[in-house]
Amino acid sequence: MNFDNIKLGVAPIIWTNDDMPELGGENTFEQCVSEMALAGFTGCEVGNKFPRDVNILKKALDLRGLQICNQWNSYELTTKSFAENRENFTRLLDFLENMGAKVIGGGETGNSCQGQMTVPVLEGKGMLNTREEWNSFTFGLNELGKIAHDRGLKLAFHHHMGTCIQTMEETDRLLHKTDPEYVFLNYDCGHFYFAGEDPVAALQKYIGRTAHIHLKDVRQNILQSVHDDRLSFLTAVKKGVFTVPGDPEGCIDFPALFSIIKSSDYHGWIVLEAEQDPSKANPLEYAMIARKYFRDLTGI
């Protein structure tokens, strides 16, 4: 196949950071979506400055030729009741369904250190320690995934640094213990690389179970300082551990990733999602770098 069934989107975290509102605090919603469109993307995920009134949001996006493709959901299956998780999940499904999205994303934040500024990310990650904890966690994901499936959406679970699903071994167990009809993967090459995994091997292994793709690159020198200086995930982001595909400071093999996607049956979105400090990395400039790089590699 070629890339006819692929759409290119972008995450607003390049402009404004949900976990650290001071990053990009000066950037408005209007600037964010206008620059997304100017850079040449046709879809986006949802950020903290996006209006939640469906009519207002649709009008703003329609004016710019954009559509919502996904939104992060904070699963808390390890720390809150299933009923609470179902209520929050269903509320977000209502919104995404109204916006025409087909994917609901997110990762397990209940026992995660990803949002803690002082906890070293490589030492404080969330854990599932017992068979019972795994069973409870994956049972909840299956139930939520079935709710999404019955409404025409896919639950695409995001492996993420600082969480209980971070490595390929953990991802394998998650996918093995969940129903492939109800639970899919939100693949992210940057998080696999950060976790010490080969993102090319990971995509080759998981592409058949992947419902959404995030692409970002990693600055190896900053990642080394995460190890050497015992940095938290948020500190690593502020220091610039992530960058966009096409930045010569990155180290991930994107031609190999696109080759896997091209030879697969993947249908859906590829989303640029490289969180950086907008005061150091101009969002429009870096979005355009990535957009040109994607076009050069894929023709789209």
Task: Indicate the percent of residues in helices.
Answer: 40-55%
Numbering strands along the chain, what is their spatial order in the largest sheet? Answer: 3-2-1-10-7-6-5-4
The first-level CATH class is given as Alpha Beta
Order of helices and strands: EHEHEHEHEHEHHEEHHEHEH
User: What oligomeric arrangement do these chains adopt?
Assistant: single chain
- What do we call the CATH topology? TIM Barrel
Radius of gyration: 18 Å
Question: How would you explain this protein's 3D organization?
Answer:
This is Myo-inosose-2 dehydratase. This protein is an alpha/beta fold and 300 residues long. The protein has one domain (6-298): TIM Barrel (Alpha-Beta Barrel). It has 11 helices and 10 strands. Helix 1 links the parallel strand 1 (6-10) and strand 2 (43-45). Helix 1 (29-39) packs parallel to helix 11, helix 3 packs parallel to helix 4 (131-150) and helix 7 runs parallel beside helix 10 (254-262). The model has no long low-confidence stretch (mean pLDDT 96).
Topology of this structure?
Elements (H helix, E strand, L loop, with lengths): L5 E5 L18 H11 L3 E3 L8 H10 L3 E4 L11 H17 L4 E2 L26 H20 L3 E5 L9 H9 L6 E6 H6 L4 H8 L3 E6 L1 E2 L1 H10 L3 H7 L2 E2 L10 H9 L5 E5 L10 H16 L2
Parallel strand pairs: 1-2, 1-10, 2-3, 4-5, 5-6, 6-7, 7-10
Antiparallel strand pairs: 8-9
Enzyme class: lyase
InterPro entries: IolE/MocC, IolE/XylAMocC-like, Xyl_isomerase-like_sf, Xyl_isomerase-like_TIM-brl
EC number: 4.2.1.44
